[in-house]
Amino acid sequence: MIESIAAIRAQAQDFTITDKATLEAYRLEFIARNGVINDLFAKFKLVPNDQKKAIGAALNELKQYLEARFKEAQDHLERSVSPVAAPIDLTLPVVPETLGSRHPINIIREKITRIFAQIGFAVADGPEIEDDWHNFGALNFPPNHPARDMQDTFFVQQDPAMLLRTHTSSVQIRLMEKSPMPVRAIMPGRVYRNEAISARAHCLFHQIEGIYIDKGVSFADLKQTLYYFVKELFGSDIKIRFRASYFPFTEPSAEMDITCLICKGEGCNICKQTGWVEILGSGMVHPEVIKNCGHDPEVYTGFAFGMGIERISMLLYDVKDLRLYTENDVRFLRQFAHLAH
Ligand code: DAH
Which of 9, 70, 167, 239 is most buried, judged by most C-beta within 10 A? Predict the structure, then answer.
């Protein structure tokens, strides 16, 4: 009997418990109702009286050991359950992932680029830091023109003058200088002016310039091209009108208005009760400008136009403060997420 007790203790000691299944196997083997320990207690009845005391003590000690070993293994298993292994509830709703959004300036720039691409306009670009010739001189600005004033232009260097371009018209010059005729392109880009920042003005904004020069291009082509553009961007019931204007680089020059999108031409605060809002400047490219770029204005004629992207985006998306475009407040930007995906 004493030998059996020692053997069982050794067995229990060697029994490896690694998980719930082996723990249960241990329980059934040693301490369950039909386990080894109860067998021994059954046999204990047959032990002669003079040995009962010693064997009884050994048996009790074995029982305590077997139970203690069980308890210890059970505690250990419970403590080592890893949180990763927690059951996953596949029926729970997914946590929605927040998507980024395209900036409204980019959305409009791409819309406009696509509209002009459909009628054969390529996309060109040029540097934001310009010399005086490309930003002013070649565009026919007289030397003492007020636009060259420090009040408007950010100069990077005085002599020779280097500046942050004040409009994308500088890219017209760069394009015509390097291209054989004909040219037909739009030129989106960032421009800079020395203005105090407010709801209606900023020192940094975006323009899209357009140019088409070929043999026999007329004002009728200008009008028809811009009419097509406006209908594509704003819808087919939008009307346009031209107002005579002045730019040094075009002759004749015209500013173009469209039906006010807010009041549909009825008259409101936005259009100052006129029913019209201005969206771009345009004109027939001045013969001097064509000549400045190395082409013959007797052979080639064409038109150009320039518009502010912020302004168009404000009209289309009803944005009332220019500063919103550069503040990057996600509450503003998120509103455009559905347009970009
Ligand atoms: N450069 C002008 C501006 O910044 C816009 C403009 C007017 C561009 C007439 C043109 C044009 O190409 O023909 O206000």
Answer: 167
- Which of 219, 249, 255, 301 most suits a substitution to test ligand 1, by most atoms within 8 Å of the C-beta? 249
> In this structure, are 57 and 191 located in the same domain?
no
Summarised one tens digit per residue, pLDDT across range 290-327 is 999 999 999 999 999 999 999 999 999 999 999 999 99
178 shares its domain with 45: no
For helices 309-317 and 104-117, angle between their N-to-C axes, nearest 10 degrees: 100
For residue 96, being part of any structural domain is answered with no
pLDDT tens for 243-281 read 999 999 999 999 999 999 888 899 888 888 999 999 999
Q: Is 321 domain-assigned?
A: yes
The answer as to whether 90 is a domain residue is no
The CATH number that applies at residue 278 is 3.30.930.10
* Nearest residue to 142 via CA among 309, 43, 303, 286: 286
- Asked whether residue 131 falls in the same domain as residue 211, the answer is yes
The pLDDT score that the predictor gives to residue 38 is 87
CB distance 167 to 136 below 8 Å: no
Reduce the secondary structure of 17-55 to three states and give it as a string. Answer: CCCHHHHHHHHHHHHCCCCHHHHHHHHHCCCCHHHHHHH
> Which residues, in sequence order, are CB contacts of 85 under 8 Å at separation 6+?
none
CA distances from 63 to 40, 50, 66 (A): 10, 21, 5
Q: Given ligand 1 and candidates 288, 305, 307, 310, which is best to mutate, with the most ligand atoms within 8 Å of its CB? A: 305
231 with 286, same domain? yes
Q: Are residues 157 and 13 in the same domain?
A: no
The reported pTM is 0.73
Strand order in the sheet with 183-192: 122-123, 183-192, 204-214, 301-308, 276-285, 250-259, 240-247
Q: Is residue 94 part of a domain?
A: no
Domain of 74 in residue numbering reads as: 2-80
Judgement on whether residues 302 and 223 belong to the same structural domain of the protein? yes
User: How many domains does the chain fold into?
Assistant: 2
Residue 167 alpha carbon, nearest atom of ligand 1:
4
